[in-house]
Amino acid sequence: MRISDEDAARFESFVDSSGGPTACWLWCGCTDSDSYGRFKVGGSVVRAHRVAYLIRHGRIPRGKFILHKCGEHRVDGLDNPRCVNPAHLKAGTAAENGRDRARRSKRRPGMPRAAVRQAARLRNAGKSWSAIARAVGFQKATVKLALTGERPGRLSPIDPATIARAAGMRKAGVRWVDVVAELGWSQGSLRRAINRLAA
Ligand SMILES: [Zn+2]
User: Taking the alpha carbons of 119, 23, 15, 57 in that order, is the dihedral positive or negative?
Assistant: First the structure.
């Protein structure tokens, strides 16, 4: 399956990369009951993390599963089915998929699953971290950690040098997918930052 530039841009509009390059990028579109994102493309519904992998790599190796490896980047060591950060995704075998699943089910997140689900729903609805923390009854830092895997205080804006590089690459005709791969921020975050700078 190929993802057109238009579909990639539509996909991007559902991605929250506000945690930065090493954080989990939250899928803000629909999710399945098991928290994996859903994205409609070419008349079929595809899991959002698979689409993120396709946009970055062009294809999924034959017979491989797309697995999360968020735990390698997160302070809580947990994988995050909502995550669509290409840096947190890898192609793996069915056996690896099973092992990951077993490992995940043993780990206990800092917040009960129902509260994480509620927090994700509110974040997807565009609520601020403070509002979400109040609604679910956990501290802001705990909620951020559960959803993005970042330490409190690590949620940082894009630094000006990176914004300038992104603007330069776009001006030079570099495709968005390559800019995102190079700089580690999502297209939406970079585009908004460039626009803010130009305004
Ligand atoms: Zn992740």
Answer: negative
If pLDDT is split at 50, 70 and 90, which confidence band does 154 have? very low
Q: What is the DSSP letter of 59?
A: S
Does residue 127 fall inside a structural domain? Answer: no
Q: pLDDT tens, 61-117?
A: 999 999 999 888 877 777 888 999 999 999 999 998 888 777 766 555 577 888 888
10 C-alpha to ligand 1 centroid (Å): 20
pLDDT greater than 50 at residue 29: yes
* 12 and 99 inside one domain: yes
Specify if 60 maps to a domain.
Answer: yes
Distance 62 CA to ligand 1 centre (A): 23
Asked which of 46, 76, 110 is the last residue of a domain, the reply is 110
Centre of ligand 1 to C-alpha 37, Å, is: 13
Residue 175 CA, ligand 1 centroid: distance in Å: 23
